[in-house]
């Protein structure tokens, strides 16, 4: 029997990850901005940069693959009805805004309260939330309508919020 494989992340954890064209350049950019612990290593699927945010959160940045290892890239368009926004909970917003600026991302981020820092996905749809609620319920998911939108627990026990 093959040895058991232990995943790097336990179920129920959501990590904040990025993708960059050139992680060597990004490592230099981070070092120049005072993020000195950035490290790069090779994985089976490509190169990865890790760095630590000021609050201790570990960031993972994959280098965009140039060698697809036999896989084919399919150009797709984003689903027009849905968008995903990462939510950073229980963090110092100004510190994270500075870090995200250094990383060069213009991705909108939701900042919210939390007893401890964490990451949560926030979904936004242009569909009627009652229609989405009916589909979720019909598929066996338990969703709750709140003032913020719909709240659903994902299979790992993480809260997902859907906004209209």
Structural summary, described in words:
The chain has about 160 residues and is α/β, with parallel strands linked by helices. It has 2 domains: about 15-65, Signal recognition particle alu RNA binding heterodimer, srp9/1, CATH 3.30.720; about 80-164, 2,3-Dihydroxybiphenyl 1,2-Dioxygenase, domain 1 (Roll). It has 3 helices and 10 strands, in the order E-H-E-E-E-E-H-E-E-H-E-E-E. The chain has helices spanning about 25-30, 95-105, 130-140, and strands at about 15-20, 40-45, 45-50, 60-65, 80-90, 110, 120-125, 145, 150-155, 160-164. The strands form 2 sheets. Strands 6-5-7-10-9-8 form a 6-stranded mixed β-sheet, with helices on one face. The chain has a 4-stranded mixed β-sheet with strand order 1-4-3-2, with helices on one face. The longest helix is centred in the middle third of the chain and has 11 residues, at about 95-105. It starts with 16 loop residues before the first strand and ends with a strand. Residues about 1-5 have low confidence and may be disordered.
Mean pLDDT: 84
CATH architecture of the largest domain: Roll
Q: Topology as H/E string?
A: EHEEEEHEEHEEE
- By DSSP, the count of extended strands is 10
- Through-space gap between termini: 49 Å
- How many independent structural domains? 2
Instruction: Report the major sheet.
Output: 6 strands, mixed
Q: In the CATH scheme, what's the topology name of the largest domain?
A: 2,3-Dihydroxybiphenyl 1,2-Dioxygenase, domain 1
* Shape by Cα distribution: globular
Helix count equals 3
* Residue fraction in strands: 25-35%
